[in-house]
Specification:
The complex is a heterodimer of chains A (about 500) and B (about 35). With about 500 residues, chain A is mainly alpha-helical. Chain A is built from 22 helices and two strands. The termini of chain A are close together.
């Protein structure tokens, strides 16, 4: 290994070690939960997981601590993010596996990646009897993943801002809420903590209304809020949101996962007093239009096929699944196989499109993102207008996203490239499913769910599916959540280093 | 009440209101199709 390569590795190793050690420290939360609930074996599991993770991450960080002042380039900054997620997954899976809830370490890794990427697909065994400690860890992981584990580290662990913006961009968030990226990371966490209080209180109340005992309603409210805000989709019961059989609970979760799918820059503007931003922003306008259009298509399909008998059933099953998919949350009020046996092609088509479109950029949501869809539609409209205008005419298109900006070719190209990458990944995952013998429609549905980090399932994702397909889905979730660039940058760095040797 | 706290509370209310409107739109569409 050349000096240059070695120096680059050392510069990347220190922050990755620190992030991993931080994830080990976070295991104290489920550890305390297990102790409070008297789950002694599970407490021991988290003590083992936490100690191992802190020791390994801390040892790497200490070994390379003298390189912490080194300036990180774009490829190194992005590699830090990609590697933090990869090693974070390996270590966070340890308590899952030791708890005995998974058939293999791969299944445990799948669930960690599903949680961190806010996808919400799960391979856990006997979810209805899982301990409170493990449930706390599942929902904590999805909550942390929504904000971003590197964003968390930037907000609370790293001193200084060297390479911070590159790591931040590597995590699929490219908007600064404040000029300083560390303050941006802290603002993201403050907004999330404000909503944690509001949302948990609301869902606690909704849980009591649904008939849960107050103590249980609090834990369920906290966990479901964490999953809703992160557009994650995990729930403590195997029937997901259907378990509660409550319209109040469903509407409350819908409100919070819709808010969770909004851009953090929008949250920051609205919570700072710019409340009109919510109706002027290109992203919220685009999102509202696609929600309405796709709800019309799905409802038309469901009613044509006579799937639901009345308006309330259509609202609680059809609309709920659609916005759950569109916000990339993945909460369900139907059983997975009902999509296949009952829903019909038109409604499934609307749901697949909704899952691919996704929520907002710089949010907890996945998918193409409404901002990119809005930019592409605006640029398309501009080009159509140009066709009918004199050749000498210069067309300027303005968009409003927090502030007024002129739509330039670089933004359009950037939006199109990411959308293209999503479509290519979706196609590849669909093809992989078909190679494993899954019919086209089911494979397309499940791969739209993993590519959009959604979590709705048509029944393909199960512990019994082939290991190869689990790995394909796991990598797809990772690629899509980090919006491709950091993992491609990591791949390019590894290739370059390999050639130099 | 401090202006920052007031803005934050009104902002949370505005976002909940906007999300509520989207949910209401879904209910109205469901009512329309189930007539």
């Amino acid at each position: 290994m050349t000096d240059r390569t070695g120096g680059r590795f050392a510069a990347v190793a220190y922050p990755v070690g620190l992030v991993v050690a931080g994830l080990g420290a976070l295991q104290w939360i489920p550890l305390v939960t297990a102790l409070v609930r008297g789950e002694w074996t599970i407490a021991l599991v988290f003590l083992t997981g936490s100690s191992t993770t802190i020791l390994c991450g801390g040892a790497v960080a200490l070994a390379f601590a003298r390189h912490r002042g080194r300036k990180l380039g774009w490829s190194e900054g992005m590699a830090v993010t990609a590697l933090s997620w990869f090693f974070g997954m390996l270590f966070c899976a340890l308590p899952y596996y030791l708890s005995g809830g998974y058939l293999s370490y791969l299944d445990a890794c799948f669930d960690v990646m599903s949680g961190l990427t806010t996808t919400g697909l799960t391979l856990i065994q006997d979810l209805d009897h899982v301990s409170d400690g493990v449930n706390m860890w599942r929902h904590l992981l999805t909550w942390l993943g929504g904000q971003g584990i590197v964003v968390l580290a930037l907000a609370f662990l790293f001193k200084g801002t060297n390479g911070a913006y590159k790591m931040y961009v590597g995590e699929g968030k490219d908007e600064r809420l404040t000029p300083n990226v560390v303050n941006t990371a802290r603002s993201i966490w403050i907004i999330s903590l404000v909503y944690l209080g509001v949302g948990t209180a609301a869902l606690w109340g909704a849980g009591i209304v649904a008939g849960l005992p107050p103590g249980r309603a609090f834990l369920h409210g906290l966990w479901i809020f964490m999953a809703a805000w992160s557009t994650g989709g995990f729930a403590p019961m195997s029937q997901n949101i259907l378990y509660y059989h409550s319209l109040v609970f469903e509407v409350t979760t819908a409100v919070f996962f819709l808010i969770g799918s909004f851009n953090f820059a929008l949250h920051y503007a609205v919570l700072s007093g710019q409340r009109s931003e919510i109706r002027k922003n290109l992203e919220t306008v685009t999102f509202s239009i696609t929600v309405v259009v796709l709800t019309l298509v799905a409802s038309a399909g469901l009613m044509r096929d006579g799937v639901y008998p009345d308006a309330i059933a259509l609202f609680r099953k059809g609309f709920y699944q659609l916005i759950s998919g569109h916000t990339t949350t993945g909460f369900m009020t139907v059983y997975a196989r009902q999509f296949y046996h009952e829903w019909g092609d038109l409604a499934l088509f609307a749901l697949i499109v909704a899952m691919l479109l996704g929520g907002s950029a710089c949010s907890t949501a996945g998918g193409f993102k409404a901002l990119r869809v809005g930019i592409i539609v605006k640029s398309f409209a501009r080009d159509v207008r140009k066709l009918g205008a004199p050749e000498s005419m210069v067309t300027v298109v303005r968009i409003h996203h927090v502030r007024d900006t002129q739509l330039d070719d670089a933004s359009i190209r950037g939006a199109m490239l990411i959308v293209f990458a999503y479509i290519a990944t979706f196609s590849a995952a669909t093809l992989a499913g078909m190679l494993y013998g899954i019919p086209f429609a089911q494979s397309a549905f499940e791969s739209a769910s993993v590519t959009g980090n959604v979590g709705l399932s048509i029944g393909v994702t199960a512990a019994s599916m082939p290991d190869g397909l689990k790995i394909v889905y796991l990598v797809t979730m990772w690629l899509a959540r980090l919006e491709f660039l950091s993992i491609l940058a990591l791949g390019a760095t590894l290739l370059r280093n390999g050639r130099r040797r | 009440m401090k202006t920052r706290t007031k803005n934050a509370l009104l902002g949370v209310a505005a976002e909940i209101g906007f999300a509520g409107l989207l949910v209401l739109a879904g209910l109205l569409i469901s009512l329309f199709f189930a007539r």
